[in-house]
Design goal:
With 323 residues, the chain is of the alpha/beta class. Helices cover 39% and strands 19% of the residues. A hairpin with a 2-residue loop joins β8 and β9. It is globular and about 55 Å long.
């Protein structure tokens, strides 16, 4: 199943490892695990991330996280690997150009809306996380290079993208992989606390500020929260600090669709969509050129604030009719 990927690893000596902008635990965990594994195997490996997209502080505990962009790039690499990327645009233009220069190009992903951009692509859309897939691949390559650091990186991604094993994407295999990773001696409680619970005071203030302005539609089945520049300025936060807050409104028992809209620059907004039951979040995001999973997706929308809000709500309301 992973023959071509394993062959690409074994036949290459230099690797460029990429993940998406605004990296989450799965993006960082999968790319760091591949990096750590390759370094242990004696390979040259470099981690690429767009310079203007900082790593979330809560994920700063991950082994080797300081290695992102901390090197002198080669002019080209034997092999380029993109992790947790649903499409090429998520890499940034500069990084995608370097990706294309590699002799061997490979992608590992789990997004249902994936748009192929590499000759060797491993897509398992039913996996809870990309790290769940990566663990199986690394075992197929050579399990002796999977150590406690690799296990911690992979487990962090698994906890992040499975919602601490609460999302519908969590399967028997997810729990089996988690059990194997825990056997390396990592502290599950520590990871859960760092990834799912610990909250800086600034983000606590942001959460309270925006949740107080939550709007509800369609008999409280749709919940909508928005972040504008004033919210970030008042709480000393940024758009990157909005991750996870949307789950607070999805947890309301009547809500079937939760929408978060964050201003990233003038007339440009990042939209996150979370759903329950049979409402397809990826289908809503696809209307605006985005994508993701059945119950978690996102997109970028451009225009005036009120117009953007109305467009997103209209698409969500229409999708609710067919759930």
């Amino acid at each position: 199943m992973y023959t071509k990927f394993v062959s690409g690893i074994k036949s290459s000596n230099s690797f460029a490892i990429f993940t998406h902008i605004n990296p989450d635990g799965d993006a960082l965990g999968s790319s760091l695990a591949v990096f750590t594994f390759l370094r242990s195997a004696g390979k040259t490996a470099h981690l690429f991330l767009p310079n203007d997209k900082p790593i979330p502080p809560k994920l700063g505990f991950l082994p080797n996280v300081e290695e992102f962009n901390n090197f002198t790039p080669l002019s080209s690499y034997d092999c380029a690997i993109a992790l947790d990327c649903g499409d090429a645009s998520r890499l940034s233009d500069e990084n995608f150009k370097l990706f294309l220069k590699a002799k061997t190009r490979m992608v590992v992903d789990h997004h249902q809306s994936h748009e192929a951009f590499a000759p060797i692509t491993i897509l398992e859309a039913d996996s809870a996380s990309t790290t769940q897939i990566v663990f199986k691949i690394l075992k197929a390559c050579d399990p002796k290079y999977i150590d406690k650091d690799v296990a911690l990186q992979l487990y962090t991604g698994l906890v992040t993208d499975s919602g601490s094993f609460s999302y519908t994407s969590t399967s028997p295999e997810t729990h089996k992989v988690a059990a194997e990773l825990l056997s390396y001696g990592i502290d599950a409680g520590f990871v859960s606390r760092k990834v799912m619970k610990d909250t800086p005071f600034s983000i606590f203030n942001l959460k309270n500020r925006v949740l107080a302005k939550t709007k509800f539609f369609e008999d409280f089945k749709i919940a909508f929260v928005s972040y504008i520049d004033e919210d970030f300025e008042a709480t000393s936060t940024t758009e990157a600090d909005t991750e996870g807050i949307i789950n607070n409104i999805l947890d309301i028992d009547t809500v079937e669709i939760a929408i978060s809209l964050a201003e990233i620059k003038d007339k440009a907004y990042k939209v996150s969509i979370r759903t329950k039951q049979n409402v397809n979040a990826a289908a809503i995001a696809k209307v605006f050129g985005g994508g993701g999973h059945a119950n978690a997706a996102g997109c970028r929308v451009y225009g005036y604030f009120e117009d953007v809000c109305n467009k997103i709500l209209s698409a969500a309301t229409e999708m609710l009719k067919y759930a």
